[in-house]
Amino acid sequence: MKACFMGLGYIGLPTAIIAAKHGIQVIGVDINPVVVDMTNQGQLHIIEPGMQEILQEVVGNGLLKASTVPEVSDAYFIVVPTPFKGNHEPDISFVEAATRAIIPLLKEGDLYVIESTSPIGTTNTMAHLIFALRPELKDKIYIAYCPERVLPGNVIYELVHNDRVIGGIDEASTDKAITFYNKFVQGTLHRTHCKTAEMCKLTENSSRDVQIAFANELSLICDKAGINVWELISLANKHPRVNILQPGCGVGGHCIAVDPYFITTDFPIESQLIAKAREINNYKAFWCAEKVENAMLRFELEHHCRPTIAMMGLSFKPDIDDLREAPAKYITTKVMQSCNNADLLIVEPNVVEHKVFKLTDYKKAYKKADIVVFLVAHSVFKSLPYDNKKVILDFCGVYKK
Ligand code: SAJ
Q: Among 95, 167, 319, 387, which is least packed, fewest CB within 10 Å?
């Protein structure tokens, strides 16, 4: 069994590594030669705990090889990004380009699977493209959609233990894909149609976005009403059928803040709640920036001098170094612009150096600042003693206990 993974990013590379670890001969393909070289040298270009050692093992024993061009295999996996164009319209051009690259290699009996988050109908669209260019393969190859659902930071465990949803263009394709994933997935493999599997991925992340929006909306109401939102949510969650998530400074990352648009673009009339949740979560970041700006002005009026402000955290969620689509980064940039860069200390304990932001040690920044703005609830921040002589804007519940 030889498998070709198109895309060696945050999901493609770990999946290729885990497949190789389970004895599958893997060729990992990426358009970026730096990624290919690093992978072939056993160097992980992403940050994922525990993954580096397994990469070295599978490169060392020859089960994983990276290349900029695909090779003839028995199964092909499309794991490339699906960003959006302006106006939040999904862009499946990477999926299409990766598919076009492997079409000449396909042979009877092969499996083709899309894992990339995709708008509904993408698997069928790619099936049409494949059969338009290789009509002799109609009903002779297997085509399916199987979304990933791993949580960055816990990928090794979740790739193996999570349940997965597998949807073929027909029953035979679903069967074939299940046989493949059974080689390394211990979770249950749930069979369905490809359109349902595509929608399932979008639904999972939209569901989380909507639930976070509810928590963020509560935080806005509580701020105005003078209620501690963390206490409120903890009390409401004592109800046996209530489970409210945590408010924060917005929603970031490349999944939850993106995937709901794949539904709202295609179903604008029907997806009112999903669209509103996106709006609320985006607004929350804007609201946080305004709160900081107001605190700054109030300080200047009261003390007749400019405050030193510590912006605590830049990543998109706690205890990671991933700054992609991070609302904390947006808020910090907006505050930087309004205070003309002066007296701003920027903190991200999980990153050593950054091209745009000059970083300060979190303890030093906290000590020096008049206004402390908690944007990400990193564990290390929780050990900082609450100093009531400072103005503390805790947007993510560092001091919620
Ligand atoms: N967040 C809150 N409040 C919460 C929980 C999260 O504000 O109570 C924020 C985080 O701070 C962050 C954002 O939401 O900014 C997203 O973080 P996350 O931990 O909810 O999710 P991701 O983006 O790291 O991973 C998600 C996961 N999806 C779901 O939990 C439904 C993961 O399983 C998916 O594989 C991943 O998206 C993906 O690749 O789609």
A: 387
